[in-house]
Amino acid sequence: MKHTLLAALALIVLGTGSALASEKCTTPRNEWQSRETLEKKLTAEGWKVKRIKVDDGCYEVYGFAPDGRRIEAYFNPKSLATVRQKMED
Description:
Layout: H1 2-21, H2 35-44, E1 48-55, E2 58-64, E3 70-75, E4 82-87
Antiparallel strand pairs: 1-2, 2-3, 3-4
């Protein structure tokens, strides 16, 4: 029974690691859209962008969401799709 439990825990941990790894942005730099394009997109959606930087191959954006809450979000630099985000409660 202990072996089964350990095997199940190992699968959960390994599965989580691969899920986190899939959040990384791996697009080659020559395929990236510009920061200005991302900023224009977010501004049109009602964001107030304070800073855009590169982190782990993703664009990392700090600013305020349309509802006024502080937000930190990561975007795929090629598609400009949201990879993940953290919002202030």
